[in-house]
Amino acid sequence: MDKIVTKKQQLLQKLITDYDKNLNNQILLVCLIYIGLSISWNLIFKWFNVPFSRAHIGVLILCFVVQLAVFWVFHIVNIPQKIRTHIVLLFVIFVTISLYFGSGYSESWSYFLLIPIISSLYGKRALSIYYSIIGLLSLSIISIVYPINPQYVTDGIDISNRILLYLIIATFSYLLLSKLNMLYNKQVNTVVTSLETTLEQVAKSFIIAMEAKDHNTFGHSERVSQYAVALGKQLPEYHDEQQLKHLRLSGLLHDIGKINISEDILTKLTKLTKLTDTEYDIIKTHTTFGAQMIEKIEGLEELKSGVLYHHERWDGKGYPSELKASEIPLDARILALADSFDAMTSTRSYQDEHFIEEAFQELEKGLGTQFDPNLSEALSAAKPEFSKIYSEYHNPLNEFEKLTDFL
């Protein structure tokens, strides 16, 4: 199984992507406004022959044209957001160098101080360091090779002070970056925690509604989820905590589709009355109906495969799609084992309670036909945990406490 990106990583990545997109647009917009205003007031000063302008209009117009070209490329070409960010930052450096030569400002070297500040706004450490170094090298070379005032020779003290000021600004920009990263993670942690709590509450609400229709199955979904997690812990695919939470929710909601089954048919399951073929076909629809419910709820859609396929068989004789072997998602193969184990060890009116060892034997017999034979070692390793869960739920006092807590 490919490594699943955790929900936290997904939210953080989405937050960063949206932030980068907005920041790119804002930086370009600010540059456009600044360059446009610079061109306008310098033209006005020259038109009225007011001695308030030393700017080179041609350089400013060049910056304006280049920016329009950037806007045009962004509009017609689908460029990845990471590349757009680099284009924007390179444009900022281009504008900074252009203003150094074309603004007519005697201290125009100070424009370079904007580079570490702007690059740090993206909240990416490598990006900030990389462009801060480019800005520092550009400032150092230009200050030495191309002094603005030919009558004034820039000495070592001037250059060292410029570099020192640049490093101070870059350091504070780096602190800004660290603060931004902390805010990112704090916001994402808050969202994820809230989402997980909400999803857990939604799942339990569904379970209450479902098990109210068939009181003989009370606790079944909770037990199946715990057995599934016990199995998942033995597999390398579920070493991530978020994946185990994903599996737990799948176990809680695996039978959610039974909400759509009439109470008459569900009641028959608690008696010795045999279901008709039509009734059995209706019972089998709980997997597809459950999957349809799950996929419509944001945050639960990833549970669809477990809910939909937990009644598939390794030999291809299951339902609803008659998937075979590894075609069946791993979540569903685990849930099939957990579901069957709980069914065999639960006391219901239509069957006697199996002893736990007999249930393990039945599961082992089904490996290679009903169940995934690759889960054999995981099942053996999970036996102590299965026994512990079984004992907790079959202790009358514990069962009563769980009932009151659940309600």
How would you portray this structure in words?
It is built from 16 helices and no strands. With 407 residues, the chain is an all-alpha fold. Helices cover 69% and strands 0% of the residues.
In short:
This protein is mostly helical. It is built from 16 helices and no strands. Helix 1 crosses helix 6 and helix 7 (220-232) crosses helix 13.
> What is the number of beta strands?
0
Helicity level = 55-70%
Biggest β-sheet strands, sense, barrel? none
Globally, the shape reads elongated
Number of H/I helices: 16
In terms of quaternary structure, the protein is single chain
Average pLDDT for all residues: 81
Q: Give the N-to-C terminal Cα separation.
A: 37 Å
Strand coverage percent:
under 5%
- Supply Rg: 33 Å
